[in-house]
Design brief:
With 301 residues, this protein is α/β, with parallel strands linked by helices. Helix content is 34%, strand content 25%. A hairpin with a 5-residue loop joins strand 8 and strand 9.
Length: 301
């Protein structure tokens, strides 16, 4: 008799820059969430789908917990905390190099305790810490909550990544497949374009600039060349907060904008499996971080 099919929704929460998006991408084995070595990379709740024999897990990657300084920041925190109680399992990701439970982690812990939800603790970046320090941190968290499992992982070394799937599987109940088994994200192609361009900007630009930008895909049109090759013509705009930022994003002779667009195009062609004709422009939209109409798109739907 075949094993009964199981499915469920799993949110992944944690402070900024603890590696949530990297873990998601490692689990899905596809580029789903933007990754950069800077805080607040993820802005919305991105769904990533992992399919295994007789099991489907829908991961929800959320913005990192931080002190909000704008309406966008408020929306990001609302998104992150909004999915803690409304899922089957929570993955709480902590930086393994921490020596104590910091203020941000404490706030998340309180939300988890309030929800009483089944939670797995993930200690990421164990390649950067010794065994004794790791053991002390595990004991600290054990005293705080009855976690279903505590898993030390390293995305860099690919240590214990599959263990996360195994532990989640133990907690899932019988249920349907919510998405086609060929799908690995619920993001539209336009959203993938926006996330990919933003990721490249985050990696290439100075600290002050990238968090004041957002991307809009203005056009995405499919066509076939005379040789029968599929190609997408994509127009996208990078919006920034001020003229000085616009100059930095464009760069001398357009050099920085060309790098951002080139790296984004390369990633998109790999993800979508076809040629991309990507054109990117830069425009200024002052104080958009506090524009209610724009911030709406980053709130939970």
């Amino acid at each position: 008799m075949s094993e009964e099919f199981k499915s469920g929704f799993v949110s992944i929460v944690g402070r900024t820059n603890v590696g949530k998006s990297s873990i998601i991408n490692s689990l899905v084995k596809e580029k789903v969430a933007a990754i950069a070595n800077k805080p607040q990379t993820t802005r919305t709740a991105i769904r990533a789908i992992v399919n295994r024999d007789n099991m489907q897990i829908v991961f929800i990657d959320t913005p990192g917990i931080h002190k909000p300084k704008s309406k966008l920041g408020d929306a990001m925190i609302e998104t992150a905390f909004g999915v803690v109680s409304d899922v089957d399992v929570v993955l709480f990701v902590v930086d393994a190099t921490s020596e104590y439970i910091g203020k941000g982690d404490r706030i998340i812990l309180d939300k988890i305790k309030e929800s009483g939800n089944k939670t797995i603790l993930i200690l990421n970046k164990i390649d950067l810490v010794g065994r004794e320090e790791l053991a002390k941190l595990i004991e600290l968290y054990k005293d705080e909550y009855n976690f279903e499992a505590i898993i030390p992982v390293s995305v860099v070394k690919k240590t214990n990544i599959e263990t996360i799937i195994e532990e989640i599987n133990k907690l899932l109940k019988p249920g349907p497949a919510y998405y086609d088994v060929e799908e690995y994200t619920d993001q539209t192609m336009r959203q993938l374009v926006e996330e990919t361009i933003r990721e490249k900007a985050l990696k290439l630009l100075n600290d002050e600039v990238p968090h004041g930008i957002y991307i809009e895909t203005e056009k995405m049109k499919e066509r076939t060349t005379k040789a029968g090759e599929l190609i997408y013509d994509v127009d996208a705009t990078i919006y920034c907060l001020r003229d000085s930022h616009k100059g930095i994003i464009i760069g001398k002779g357009g050099s920085m904008l060309k790098r951002i667009a080139s790296y984004a195009r390369e990633d998109l062609e790999k993800m979508l499996g076809c040629k991309i004709n990507l054109q990117v422009w830069v425009k200024v939209k002052e104080d958009w971080l506090n524009n209610d109409n724009l911030v709406k798109k980053f709130k939970p739907q």
